[in-house]
Amino acid sequence: MKKNGIIIIVSVGQLCVAAVGYISMCLIICKNAGIIPVHTIGRCKKMPNIKSAKKRVKVNATKAAANKSRRTNLKTVLKKADVACTTGAADKAEAVKLAIKKVDQACAKGLMHKNKAARKKAQLAKKLNAAQ
Questions:
Q1: Is the separation of the CB atoms in 99 and 63 below 8 Å?
Q2: Domain membership flag for residue 59
Q3: Minimal CB count within 10 Å: which of 7, 16, 51, 112?
């Protein structure tokens, strides 16, 4: 808990409970699942009591971390493709091809709606054709 600028961390077995920010949110920092919001004061979620619900919290946290990583990677690839097209780099066709592949993968994983994926691919193709 943060009191006077101090974060108090209480270790419980292999789990570690830490209150971050104001005294309104506690987190379980798990070795495999990352950071899981649990319990506590005010507007925060409470840790479930049922075993399957606890597992769902862990699985959701793991999937959220994976989705965040994929989304960040996608943004990076799209930016690189955009820069390659605008600067007229020699490998702009490869950059656009990789970006289109990543967009398709994001669509397949459910990170992006199929219409948005189609729109992104069309935008990339348009930029590539304009750059040539």
A1: no
A2: no
A3: 51
